[in-house]
């Protein structure tokens, strides 16, 4: 049996190119200089502006619902939105293309609609009456019909296929449903125009308020004060709440109204628990995470790679995109704001084996960590986050990248020494990071060249490799630091650690381990066929076409991780930095020790095997 009539979008296969559907309207608006007051095509400019504002309305609601630092206590469905749901709702705005086509057709069919006055108060009263008397009851009847077995299976099941409502879920439906909704929403406007009381202002107000309420109802965050409906009980039947509509999404048997629960009351489909649950959700509940990954912002561009800015963008590996450039000044202003006023905040979460894992962000950017006067402030932020986690009952806090910088806080030792009675375990995760890099080195390798060789990671890698009788050329100008590391090796292994001071020494070595930035000139010393393993932040740029470049050490989370919907910087979906994964292993294994300071080389293989045991796999 073929697909049902109007059950799929005709431009489904066009991807981004679906936006060429706006082309004829945009082209005519440009040709007719529609932005000029005297232009006969000014209606086109207004129409395009209206639909741009409609898209912005849903985007702003999506941003708000993903601001976990504001909304996490009042979330209705506690599960996270995963990549599968994000992909399904990727083209949530298809209905805007459909409805702008419907609107343009009406304006061409009835030319008088192109010359409406700016405002007419009488039209507001007509539209309000028609909304209550026609749009609401007809939508209720249509919605119940779509829940009939035949129509639900062919059409409405798509809208209900995602269990976590989001503002974009409001647009996630079939063309037939949006045709019906579009016609019903047009009734009040058509009635006002037929009475000679239509206006541009009414059109904007009615359409945008409808979009506002639809996005609000799907936002999965309870907004209305519980006391409002106790003080004014009649409001229960005049306006729905996010909790009210979420009950419909999860149960599918009650609360069918558009915006006014009155019609559920009249139709006998009002869920009696709606207001009790609304009060409970509004009061909120704090979920205590078992594991926290304490991240930081990389730069101004990367600061926009979070769900509360653009969910779809955050669900893909970070890359600089052209559409980000106009937003850069806003992101720069935001940087100064969080630098001045913000504390560590929650940016995302997921569940693993029934336990809540959260990602918190220290409100500092990469360059801040290299400003001498910013050091104390950064450590204060990290310390406050650790103490907060300790009070909450968090089991493990894992420090990301620069948050555990040796020069900043000794790889976390500063906090552990200052607060010896911490119940939360502080983890830098570098043991697993070292394990990932070491396991990337091909078997049979006899020699490696390493920059950043005397760093915390460099030391551990060098000591591990020399135990395997692999010659390590350690690039460092500090003989003292080299000899200190060399003396840690067993007497029979010390010969495999060699200090070098020039890149020319590695001209014949095809395995480079990069822990310090390499310029294009320095990379030229590597022979063709070299592979650059990396633990430098940020990673080096790949200038050599005859060489290969590894990414930062990372691992793939287990398949049973739920609600994972954002990518960690430039890593692919489901993959996290090794220091993040190292903290997860620390939690899953129930280790009682802090993992701070120098890396225990004896534990590298132990942690690696533990990661594999728990389904955490190399990329």
UniProtKB/TrEMBL annotation:
Q: Which UniProt keywords apply?
A: Endoplasmic reticulum, Lyase, Membrane, NADP, Transmembrane, Transmembrane helix
* Predominant subcellular localization, coarse grouping: endoplasmic reticulum
**CC per GO annotation:** endoplasmic reticulum membrane
Where found? Endoplasmic reticulum membrane
Q: What is its EC number?
A: 4.1.99.5
List, for all copies, the residue spans of the domain called Very-long-chain aldehyde decarbonylase CER1-like C-terminal. 448-618
Residue stretches spanning the membrane: 179-208, 318-341
Membrane association type? Multi-pass membrane protein
SUPFAM superfamilies to which the protein is assigned, alphabetical: NAD(P)-binding Rossmann-fold domains
What sort of enzyme, by top EC class, is this?
lyase
Domain Fatty acid hydroxylase intervals: 129-269
- GO terms for MF: aldehyde oxygenase (deformylating) activity; iron ion binding; oxidoreductase activity
Q: Which Gene3D superfamilies match?
A: NAD(P)-binding Rossmann-like Domain
Task: Keyword check for Membrane, yes or no.
Answer: yes
UniProt record similarity statement? Belongs to the sterol desaturase family.
Question: Can you name this protein?
Answer: aldehyde oxygenase (deformylating)
Q: Which organism is it from?
A: Triticum aestivum (Wheat)
Give the source lineage, highest ranks first.
Answer: Eukaryota, Viridiplantae, Streptophyta, Embryophyta, Tracheophyta
């Amino acid at each position: 049996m073929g697909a049902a009539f109007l059950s799929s979008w005709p431009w489904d296969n066009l991807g981004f190119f679906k936006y060429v559907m706006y082309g004829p309207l945009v082209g005519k608006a440009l040709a007719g200089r529609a932005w000029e007051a005297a232009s006969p095509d000014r209606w086109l400019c207004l129409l395009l502006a209206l639909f741009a504002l409609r898209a912005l309305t849903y985007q702003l609601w999506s941003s708000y619902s993903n601001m976990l630092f504001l909304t996490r206590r009042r979330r209705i469905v506690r599960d996270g939105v995963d990549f599968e749901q994000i992909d399904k709702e990727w083209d949530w705005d298809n209905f805007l293309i459909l409805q702008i086509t419907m609107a343009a057709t009406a304006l061409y069919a009835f030319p008088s609609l192109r010359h409406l006055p700016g405002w007419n108060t009488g039209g507001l009263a007509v539209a309000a009456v028609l909304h209550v008397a026609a749009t609401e009851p007809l939508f209720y009847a249509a919605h119940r019909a779509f829940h009939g077995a035949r129509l639900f299976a062919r059409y409405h099941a798509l809208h209900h296929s995602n269990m976590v409502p989001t503002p974009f879920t409001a647009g996630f439906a079939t063309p037939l449903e949006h045709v019906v909704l579009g016609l019903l929403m047009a009734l009040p406007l058509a009635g006002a125009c037929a009475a000679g009381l239509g206006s541009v202002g009414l059109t904007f107000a009615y359409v945008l308020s409808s979009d506002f309420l639809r996005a609000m109802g799907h936002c999965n965050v309870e907004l209305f004060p519980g006391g409002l409906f106790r003080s004014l009980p009649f409001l229960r039947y005049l306006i729905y709440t996010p909790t009210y509509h979420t009950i419909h999404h999860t149960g599918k048997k009650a609360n069918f109204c558009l915006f006014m629960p009155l019609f559920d009351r009249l139709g006998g489909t009002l869920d009696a628990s709606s207001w009790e649950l609304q009060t409970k959700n509004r009061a909120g509940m704090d979920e205590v995470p078992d594991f926290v990954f304490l991240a930081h912002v990389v730069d101004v561009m990367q600061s926009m790679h979070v769900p509360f800015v653009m969910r779809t963008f955050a669900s893909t590996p970070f890359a600089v995109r052209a559409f980000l450039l106009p937003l850069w000044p806003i992101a720069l202003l935001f940087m100064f704001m969080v630098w001045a006023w913000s504390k560590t905040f929650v940016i995302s979460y997921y569940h693993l084996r029934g336990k809540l894992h959260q990602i918190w962000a220290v409100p500092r950017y990469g360059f801040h960590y290299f400003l001498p006067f910013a050091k104390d402030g950064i450590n204060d932020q990290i310390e406050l986050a650790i103490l907060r986690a300790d009070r909450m009952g968090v089991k493990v806090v894992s420090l990301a990248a620069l948050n555990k910088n040796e020069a900043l806080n000794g790889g976390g030792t500063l906090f552990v020494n200052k607060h010896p009675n911490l119940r939360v375990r502080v983890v830098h995760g570098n043991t697993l990071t070292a394990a990932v890099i070491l396991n990337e080195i091909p078997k049979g390798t006899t020699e490696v060249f390493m920059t950043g060789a005397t760093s915390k990671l460099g030391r551990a890698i060098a000591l591990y490799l020399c135990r395997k009788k692999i010659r390590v050329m350690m690039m460092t100008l500090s003989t003292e630091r080299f000899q200190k590391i060399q003396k840690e090796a067993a007497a029979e292994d010390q010969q495999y650690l060699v200090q070098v001071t020039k890149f020319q020494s590695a001209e014949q070595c095809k395995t480079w381990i990069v822990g310090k930035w390499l310029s294009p000139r320095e990379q030229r010393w590597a022979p063709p066929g070299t592979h650059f393993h990396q633990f430098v932040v940020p990673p080096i740029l790949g200038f050599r076409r005859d060489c290969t470049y590894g990414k930062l050490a990372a691992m793939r989370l287990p398949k049973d991780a739920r609600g994972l919907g954002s990518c960690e910087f430039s890593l692919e979906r489901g993959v996290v930095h090794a220091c993040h994964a190292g903290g997860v292993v620390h939690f899953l294994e129930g280790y009682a020790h802090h993992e701070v300071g120098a890396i225990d080389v004896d534990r590298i293989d132990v942690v690696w095997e533990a990661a594999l045991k728990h389904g955490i796999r190399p990329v």
